[in-house]
Design goal:
The chain has two domains: about 230 residues, Type I PLP-dependent aspartate aminotransferase-like (Major domain) (Aspartate Aminotransferase, domain 2, 3-Layer(aba) Sandwich), CATH 3.40.640; about 120 residues, Aspartate Aminotransferase, domain 1 (Alpha-Beta Complex), CATH 3.90.1150.10. The chain contains ten helices and 14 strands. Strand 1, helix 1 and strand 2 form a beta-alpha-beta unit. Helix 1 packs parallel to helix 6, helix 6 crosses helix 10 and helix 7 packs across helix 10.
Length: about 350
């Protein structure tokens, strides 16, 4: 196995093919993949990560990672506990049931008041059986970026626990490189960097996950597209970041001036630069969102019955009546002063109409 880079997806049946000159097609294509793979890792700026894997879905990625660790490192060390975020996708609840059936354990880590991982709760749940913590840095429904990853990494590593971080949605939210997270495994959704791509990437410092993964042939240009897509995305995201921050600050200020009784869901340091969560006192979020959508404003209340914004806010100890008046706005970029002025006027008009019962 290559000690610099290993691909989970190989050529499969192509191993048996020989070209006209008698050179194994598999060997030639594998070398090309490794060469491009090294470029990808260089583009990701992750010198500590030597293994690159591609998956069709998040479920396939997590299944491969969790089961690999459980049946290899877990059996070798006697560790069988996985630490999962209580505010992440409902899939974590399904993983908890699955691990229990396999004689494993799952501990759900509760959130702090801003929807991030609660560090006291994490330390409380850590124990001699803890094997891996799964952490999604960005919560798309709450609009929260958990900036505690370094403290979490140090806490886990002091106890000999592996750290897996999903950075989907977090890339472009702050000026940080992937290696600075100090995780053992990092993943992200390819479609989040380029809508033309699909699948998930997993970066690993250890090859422990390799044996579970099934071979699949991927064309050489796929790897080139991944690298090109990432480079384009990162250049665009970093160049836009300051502008997005300024846009958001201006929107917050304008909204507060127009409707002083509004409050923001999350502390400013934890907020996404692409969205803004707001409480509108004395109105129901569904009525407000419905009226705003009619005005072609992009708002969100959650991702289904089990992942509603109000339900997640109640999980972070927000009063239920307050949670039911919360709406998440998606801020377009660039947003001109004229567009912002019109948006704020629409918001104020709709809000005032709802207070009077006119909408």
């Amino acid at each position: 196995m290559n000690d610099v880079l290993d691909f989970s997806y190989r050529c499969g049946a192509a191993q048996d093919l020989i070209d006209a000159k008698g050179v194994f097609v598999f060997q030639r294509r594998q070398k090309m993949r490794e060469k491009i793979g090294q470029k990808i890792l260089m583009g990701f700026k992750v010198k500590a990560f030597k293994h690159l894997y591609f998956f069709a879905s998040r479920q396939e990625l997590e299944s491969s990672l969790y089961f690999s660790l459980f049946f290899t490192l877990g059996h070798q060390t006697g560790k069988n506990q996985f630490l999962l975020s209580a505010t992440s996708h409902k899939k974590n609840l399904e993983w908890a049931k699955c691990l229990k059936k396999m004689q494993g354990q799952a501990a759900l880590i509760g959130p702090d008041e801003n929807g991030r991982i609660s560090l006291p709760h994490l330390r409380e749940k850590l124990g001699p059986k803890s094997l891996l913590m799964s952490h999604r840095l960005f919560h798309p429904i709450l609009g929260v970026l958990d900036d505690q990853y370094l403290e979490i990494a140090h806490t886990l590593h002091e106890e000999g626990v592996l750290y897996y971080v999903d950075v989907t949605g977090a890339l472009g939210e702050r000026f940080f490189d992937l290696e600075s997270i100090e995780a053992d495994f990092i993943s992200f959704d390819l479609s989040s960097i380029d809508s033309a791509l699909s699948g998930f990437v997993l970066l690993a410092k250890d090859e422990v996950v390799d044996w579970v993964l099934s071979p699949l042939d991927l064309p050489i240009d796929f790897y080139e597209k991944v690298l090109e897509g990432f480079e384009r995305f990162y250049e665009k995201a970093t160049s836009e970041l300051l502008g997005r921050i300024q846009n958001k600050m201006l929107f917050e200020k304008s909204l507060k001036e127009a409707i002083p009784e509004t409050h923001f869901i999350i502390a400013a340091t934890c907020q996404s630069v692409r969205g803004l969560g707001v409480y509108f006192p004395k109105v129901h979020a569904e009525a407000l969102a419905f009226a705003l959508v009619r005005h072609k404003m992009s708002v969100e209340l959650g991702g289904g019955a089990e992942q509603t914004l109000s339900g997640l806010l109640e999980l972070v100890q927000v009063d239920s009546s307050k949670a039911l008046s919360a709406v998440m706005f998606h801020l377009p970029y660039p947003l001109s002063e004229e567009e912002m002025r019109k948006s704020i006027l629409i918001l104020k008009e709709v809000y005032c109409s709802l207070l009077k019962g006119a909408v």
